[in-house]
Specification:
two-stranded antiparallel ribbon; 5 strands; about 30% helix; Alpha-Beta Plaits; 2 helices
Length: about 90
């Protein structure tokens, strides 16, 4: 799977973040339905933030996100946005 290199003004870039979010005390609290809903929610949040959710997966105690982002998007702001309750 070849990823396209993007350009902006005076630079070219391909920034991908691999983010792992875990439950408190790694408790097995996430069901398969919850993971499915989380995938949709994270996809919507990424789209609103101006980035793209490339892959999503998880288990009962954690989720993995692979996000394609723009250089103007601060990683700390992205993670804070993902962790906030965005219903």
């Amino acid at each position: 799977m070849a990823q396209e290199i993007k350009s902006h003004a005076h630079c070219v870039f391909r920034i991908q973040y691999h983010i792992v979010l875990v439950t408190k005390y790694r408790r097995k609290a996430l069901s398969s339905l919850m993971l499915e809903d989380l995938g949709k929610i994270f996809e919507r949040i990424c789209r609103n933030a101006g980035c793209e959710l490339l892959e999503f997966g998880g288990e009962a105690d954690h989720v993995h996100l692979l996000i394609d982002a723009h250089p103007n998007l601060k990683p700390s702001r992205l993670v804070n946005t993902l962790k906030k309750n965005q219903r």
